[in-house]
Amino acid sequence: MNSFVAILAIIIAYFCGTLPIAILIAKSKGIDITTFGSGNPGASNVARALGTKYGIYVFAGDALKGALPVATMLSNRPIAYACAAASVLGHVFPITRKFKGGKGVATGAGSLLPLHPALLIGAALTWLLVTKLTKKASIASIAIVPALIAAFVISGTPGWEIFSLVGIGALVEIRHASNIKRLLSGTEPPVTGTTV
């Protein structure tokens, strides 16, 4: 692949990641999601503010902005992984919003879906189950990263791909530092959602 095309694809993936899906959806309902609840512009916080339906909309939108750039580069898996990392980086540290973004769970999951659909579908179902059982999306998000890495290892995924996942997963885990503190102090809010 032409190096210019590869670099352009990675840059586009980053800016796809910066699209503020949660902020736009919440704003359409008259809410500044960055000042509500945890202040995180993500699916869980939108679900708390507007209900589960809108949380699902945000999750799907955030996943798509990771999946689409990667899907266009599937013919070159190293570049596809670079696009996955770039889209997550764009979501977590968007230059368009002074590098104040979300946690990266949905975008990370979406970016890996075209690369490993079966594993990611299984991970999504596991995330939903853990969230339902614990009422805490953060617990599911924190737990799913090592679980997914283990699934990659067991499935015989090449080492460099596992290393790439570890890098993306580490970024997601670091972004959950505040959630871990709240979990330890017992102040982490549940994902209840209201019907709107």
Instruction: Please count the helical segments.
Output: 10
**By helix and strand content, what is the structural category?**
mainly alpha
For the secondary structure, the number of strands is: 0
Order of helices and strands: HHHHHHHHHH
How far is the N terminus from the C terminus? 47 Å
| Cα-atom radius of gyration | 16 Å
Helix content: 55-70%
| Domain module tally | 1
Shape annotation: globular
Strand residues, percent = under 5%
Q: Please summarize the sheet with the most strands.
A: none
Question: Uncertain runs with pLDDT below 50, 5 residues or more?
Answer: none
Please tell me the overall pLDDT. Answer: 91
Describe the structure.
The structure is a single chain. This protein is mainly α and 196 residues long. It has one domain (3-185). The chain is built from ten helices and no strands. The termini are far apart.
Outline the fold blueprint.
Layout: H1 3-17, H2 21-28, H3 43-50, H4 52-71, H5 77-92, H6 105-112, H7 117-134, H8 137-154, H9 159-175, H10 177-185
Helix pairs in contact: 1-4, 1-5, 2-4, 3-4, 4-5, 4-6, 5-6, 5-9, 7-8, 8-9
Salient structural properties:
single chain; 10 helices; 196 residues
In short:
The chain is mainly alpha-helical and 196 residues long. It contains ten helices and no strands.
